[in-house]
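Re: [ENG-882] Designed sequences occasionally contain unexpected residues at chain ends

Forwarding the minimal case from QA. Structure tokens:
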């Protein structure tokens, strides 16, 4: 993750809530750069890869992403003017790159000492090399277009053989040789030179090659007089004519004209001076590029040889090359090589191209594959890859400079791998493949973006209750929230010295810092890091209206992570706000353990004890309710609640009668939970341990029990009991039950309490019943009962499905077939089975066969 902007401003705390609902909140969370969009209303959504974009509008972004190598500016110091050169009025050229047709560049009036080509021109560095299929040049309405002009482009390479050249080599893509007075929009198509759907370029230059200068437009004397007063720069030439005897008129100077008598004076023509204005320069390219932002998003680039110039692979600059060895006859002697990118974020990817060097050797990759992965792991722990393109050399362009261009079905990708086949050259070897640039494109909204909150300081230890959020989630999209908590922060200190104020400071050790002169000490920076007690990210919360916090609580600090998901490039989730609710804890800490935690027989009821030790601060309110929950296949029945000192429970034979808690009531809940109320236990009463005895049955290899306490009389709010050492005499330190039964069976305790069905509607024996217990099933696979007649013909199929398949069942059959008709009297076979994921293998008793009878 790349942290953006400041610290501790990504939320606000209002009473007993942490609130995130403003754009500046989200903008101060941590996320891969450029992957999110923020609305003025305070919502956050995944960014989008756009196709067919005007590259003139995001020049500055790319300048700051990959600054020109000959510049010593910091990225944030660049302005759009760094991308512009012009013969005059340079600053105003920025107006043609803003997408606003009302703004423009107007060159300064021509001077007589230089030709128009040296004065009326501009060039634009688009910030990166690209494939463009169209350039649109627009002149402003109400002003003049260039009379004659050229449009030229450059890929960025400078003229060969000219060592001191500062400008790249340009080639024309439009040359206007006939005078243009009226056309104000020129669309220039850029045909492909190879596989690419357009032309490769980085620079665009426009040069005026001809002008009407002071004779742009004939105007009346009245208009000319107005120009002289209001816009003198636009007052152009005045032409004077003398009448000839034959009726013709010839052009003369004003002095001669003034000396003529009235009968010899001809017409006087007034002209407006030419005023060209360029409104927009549009360069239309494939779309938003992915690879150039890899490092900024926190991604990485790797390669098989370890010596590829990774910085030159995708930096928008075709001058810097990345040579790649293709000869398998030299080290590392491998059949294949690769270049691998962790993109730093997830994208829908559907196009890739490689530009080979346009100077030196023109060697290309002969055979290669493009592979992508969303990060899913294979069984061996390695990344699972999917090949999108497998191809060989295009013979049409062999030994020529240019692009390999590949299109494929959009694929969700976090990782990209370019795998090339090495060839064996027996003599003379082979020159490397010089990659000038590699680019990757996609479309639509990002399929997955995660953002992490800044450190949320709750002021003191707080009991985290629930998290709720407001989001727009069209079908196929989802918002997932998670939390992590802790009490400890580590402080990392960095020490700096500065011997010369004109030089940057350098980091030194603490010892070296202390030995410096005071004037050389350049300060100590402190950085907070999460301590060792921080929990991992919680399981995703599912209920946006309010999900109970599952991270350890109470805690002083919390972090929130939000993930926006979509399975469709044209759909996206929007997260509007998040609220995390907390209260003061009932106790500083609650530790609990269950005994015995090891269960030697599954499916057998037994009595267990839960011990809870509260650690109180003097101001803690205490508690008066307890809630115990477990998996849905378990049932909890209350036996007794005890309370006392640690010593009371560590005696060999505790006096349980004397330790019984007062005022205990069982509050009705679902079968998989047990809720009690009792007289409040508060600090200073001498109660150090609480013991709950309960009956339950374990059906699987393990079950996590969860206990919580609250003070209902002061408003409630469950505080979870952390697994730990509640009582020294108890050695479990856990609230997890572990099944240790050696028998590997699925069904047990099979009974047939009613083997005969008499479906005559009298309410007696209307169903045949089969009872059984299912063990070890940890998913929601259904139990199936099939009924067969004595010939083996199936007559009925009955399913029962639960959220957790283990538990006690009693399935009935009413003597009817699948069509609802009564079957003939006789004997039928019931076959009960369950195909499922279990927590054991080599299971026995995986199905039940019993006979049932139908009689009238």
């Amino acid at each position: 993750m790349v942290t953006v902007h400041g610290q501790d401003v990504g939320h606000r705390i209002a009473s007993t809530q942490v609130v995130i609902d403003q754009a500046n909140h989200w903008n101060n969370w941590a996320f891969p750069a450029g992957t999110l969009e923020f609305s003025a209303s305070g919502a956050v959504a995944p960014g989008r890869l756009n196709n067919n974009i005007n590259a003139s509008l995001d020049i500055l972004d790319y300048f700051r992403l990959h600054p020109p190598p000959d510049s010593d500016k910091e990225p944030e110091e660049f302005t759009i003017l760094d991308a512009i050169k012009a013969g005059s009025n340079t600053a105003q050229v920025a107006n043609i790159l803003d997408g606003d047709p009302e703004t423009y560049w107007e060159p300064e009036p021509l001077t007589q000492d230089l030709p128009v080509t040296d004065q009326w021109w501009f060039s634009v560095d688009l910030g990166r090399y690209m494939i463009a299929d169209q350039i649109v040049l627009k002149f402003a309405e109400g002003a003049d277009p260039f009379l004659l002009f050229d449009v030229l482009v450059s890929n960025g390479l400078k003229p060969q053989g000219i060592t001191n050249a500062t400008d790249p080599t340009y080639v024309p893509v439009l040359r206007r040789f006939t005078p243009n007075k009226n056309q104000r929009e020129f669309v220039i198509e850029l045909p492909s030179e190879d596989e690419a759907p357009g032309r490769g370029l980085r620079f665009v230059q426009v040069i005026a090659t001809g002008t009407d200068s002071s004779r742009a437009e004939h105007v009346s004397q009245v208009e000319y007089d107005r120009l002289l007063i209001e816009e003198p720069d636009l007052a152009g030439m005045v032409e004077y004519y003398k009448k000839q005897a034959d009726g013709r008129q010839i052009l003369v100077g004003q002095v001669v004209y003034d000396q003529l008598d009235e009968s010899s004076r001809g017409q006087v023509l007034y002209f407006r001076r030419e005023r060209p204005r360029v409104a927009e320069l549009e360069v239309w390219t494939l779309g938003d590029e992915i690879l150039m932002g890899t490092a900024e998003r926190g991604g990485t680039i790797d390669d098989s040889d370890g010596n590829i110039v990774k910085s030159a692979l995708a930096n928008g600059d075709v001058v810097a090359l990345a040579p790649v060895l293709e000869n398998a006859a030299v080290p590392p002697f491998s059949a294949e090589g690769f270049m691998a990118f962790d993109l730093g974020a997830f994208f829908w990817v559907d196009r890739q191209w490689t530009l080979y060097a346009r100077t030196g050797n023109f060697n290309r990759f002969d055979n290669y594959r493009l592979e992508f992965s969303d990060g899913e792991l294979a069984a061996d722990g390695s990344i699972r890859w999917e090949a999108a393109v497998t191809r060989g050399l295009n013979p049409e362009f062999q030994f020529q400079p240019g692009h390999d261009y590949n299109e494929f079905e959009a694929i969700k990708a976090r990782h990209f791998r370019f795998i090339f086949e090495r060839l064996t050259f027996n003599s003379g070897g082979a020159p490397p493949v010089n990659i000038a640039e590699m680019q990757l494109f996609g479309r639509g909204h990002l399929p997955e973006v995660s953002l992490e909150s800044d450190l949320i300081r709750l002021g003191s230890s707080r009991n985290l209750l629930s998290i709720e959020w407001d989001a727009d989630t069209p079908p196929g999209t989802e918002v997932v929230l998670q939390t992590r908590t802790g009490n400890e922060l580590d402080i990392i200190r960095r020490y700096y010295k500065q011997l010369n104020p004109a030089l940057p400071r350098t980091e030194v050790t603490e010892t070296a810092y202390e030995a410096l002169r005071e004037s050389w000490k350049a300060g100590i920076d402190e950085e907070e890091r999460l301590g060792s007690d921080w929990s991992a990210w919680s399981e995703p919360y599912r209920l946006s209206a309010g999900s109970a916090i599952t991270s350890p609580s109470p805690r002083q600090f919390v972090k929130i992570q939000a993930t926006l998901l979509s399975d469709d490039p044209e759909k996206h989730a929007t997260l509007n706000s998040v609220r995390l609710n907390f209260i003061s804890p009932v106790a500083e800490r609650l530790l609990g353990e269950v005994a015995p935690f090891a269960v030697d027989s599954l499916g057998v009821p037994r009595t267990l004890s839960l011990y809870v030790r509260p650690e109180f601060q003097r101001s803690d309110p205490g508690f008066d309710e307890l809630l115990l929950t477990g998996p849905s296949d378990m049932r909890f029945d209350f036996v007794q609640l005890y309370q006392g000192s640690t010593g009371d429970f560590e005696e060999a034979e505790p006096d349980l009668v004397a330790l019984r808690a007062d005022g205990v009531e069982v509050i009705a809940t679902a079968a998989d939970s047990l809720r009690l109320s009792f007289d409040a236990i508060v600090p200073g009463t001498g109660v150090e341990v609480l013991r709950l005895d309960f009956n339950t049955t374990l059906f699987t290899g393990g079950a996590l029990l969860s206990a919580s306490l609250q003070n209902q009389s002061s408003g409630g709010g469950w505080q979870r009991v952390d697994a730990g050492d509640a009582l020294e005499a108890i050695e479990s330190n856990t609230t997890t039950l572990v099944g240790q039964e050696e028998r590997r069976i699925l069904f047990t305790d099979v009974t047939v309490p009613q083997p005969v069905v008499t479906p005559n509607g009298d309410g007696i024996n209307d169903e045949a019943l089969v009872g059984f217990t299912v063990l070890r099933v940890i998913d929601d696979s259904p139990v199936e009962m099939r009924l067969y007649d004595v010939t083996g013909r199936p007559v009925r199929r009955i399913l029962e499905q639960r959220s957790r398949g283990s538990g006690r069942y009693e399935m009935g059959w009413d003597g009817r077939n699948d069509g609802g008709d009564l079957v003939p009297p006789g004997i039928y076979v019931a076959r009960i089975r369950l195909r499922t994921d279990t927590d054991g293998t080599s299971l026995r008793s995986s199905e039940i066969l019993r006979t049932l009878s139908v009689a009238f």
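QA comment: On inspection the terminal residues look reasonable. Confidence is low (pLDDT under 50) at residues 1-7. Proposing we downgrade this to a documentation issue.
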